[in-house]
User: Fold this.
Amino acid sequence: MSPFDFDLFVIGGGSGGVRAARMAAQRGARVALAEVLGIDGLGGTCVNVGCIPKKLYSYAAHYAEAAEEAHGYGWEGPAPTLNWQTLKANRAREITRLNGVYHHLLQGSGVTVINGFARLEGEHGVGVATLNADGSAGHQSFTARHVLLATGGTPHVPHFAGREHVITSDDVFDLPDFPRRLVVVGGGYIACEFASIFNGLGAHVTQLYRGEQILRGFDDEIRHFLAAEMAKAGVDLRLNAGVLAVERHSDGLLVRLEDGNTVAADAVLYATGRLPNVNGLGLETAGVAQSGQGAVQVNSHYQTNVPHIYAVGDVTARVQLTPVALGEAMVVVDHLFGPQAGKPPRAMSYEAIPTAIFTHPNVGTVGLSEADAGAQYGQVTLYRSEFRSLKHTLSGSTERTLMKLVVDTATDRVVGLHMVGADAGEIVQGFAVAMKAGATKAQFDATLGIHPTAAEEFVTMREPVKAGR
Ligand code: NDP
Assistant:
């Protein structure tokens, strides 16, 4: 008879938490998962206010392009107009459906789902603040052999005058009225994606980035190319643009910039990074070590300095991506409860993580930037193809596509693969398998293209180009 109520208590019902709970329960462990099920249901940031609704809105924005481009293919008639309320309602319905799917999956696996705010409490203890049926506050205490922290992250807005007037990615999906004039602050994934999406949906978008070029850390050529494409599509992208203050006036908001300029807006979206969700978790009482920004520190098994407490996903502030949290969750489950029958225990590699930015056009990337590859391998050979896609020969769109390969000259291995163009995320996913397998440029060359596609360019680039163009 176990001295604990549960073998595993998961705090947080996002991507990492749900995956760990489900897989642990399927291995026969007694598992509980606590999550505050209020406006948002199970699924965490990704399902409720992240990847999924963002991608739906990105699809919505692409329809505007498609309607415009269809004229070149002979389609006639007036341009359709966006009904923001319909888009919001349909998105909300789909998210609610997904929340239900997650619930169903957990219950089907035998996980006990507890609705409430959980915190670490005493030795192997977890306390959950719940709501009683009559609306009064309740409290339940549990013990668990292992605890998994999977509480995710939350948008970070820096301090400045008028901070209370701005919104974050948590709010943007449900704005009561469509923002005709949107200011987006930041130059990372979220800022670039929402600048593109709202531009596509018909807003006048001004994106303000404090540095020299958006998407710091990505391949420089990709950054410049994307910035130019976004600007061409209509985003008013302003670099070296620091915000001094945001003021509310009778006709909307006014953003005051450090250089003395102002921008009028109906909404100001701050996308300036995310911080780990650790408030109220009881980490200090349990003695769980944290980094400077509050992130929970873990070892290669995602174990904290308190041996029975583990953490995965954004709360550890390592790589803030859903597939990474899922992978980490599987490692924890294999470590604690053994691998799946007949399979070795899983390990996570943080090398060559493929990723996409759902800007218009998309960015897809895997492996190293030209600069990072140069620093790591010394000599690299570059291949590059820039073109207007076949689709746009008739569509009238001036959008261009860029594809780039970075090859370690000594071994011929492709160590970086980058694309700006339609469906870059879809295209790069497949190439990521080849990169993971250590594919060489010779093997890319030996692969036949699928004609006519944009993707075939990745296997037909023959002539190297000079670095640092
Ligand atoms: P990022 O860290 O990607 O970008 C933050 C941006 O805000 C940077 O441009 C940064 O500038 C800027 N910034 C930071 N602090 C300030 C400040 N005080 N004032 C002005 N600008 C500031 O964070 P995001 O919020 O965009 O996204 C968080 C994470 O979520 C991403 O890193 C990504 O891992 C994940 N994500 C993934 C997506 C996908 O896979 N498609 C989509 C959305 C999010 P600087 O570069 O100068 O520091």
User: Anything to note?
Assistant: DSSP finds twelve helices and 21 strands in the chain. The chain has three domains: 6-154+276-337, 157-272, 355-465. Residues 158, 186-191, 193, 209-211, 216, 271-274, 320-321, 355-358 surround NDP (CB under 6 Å).
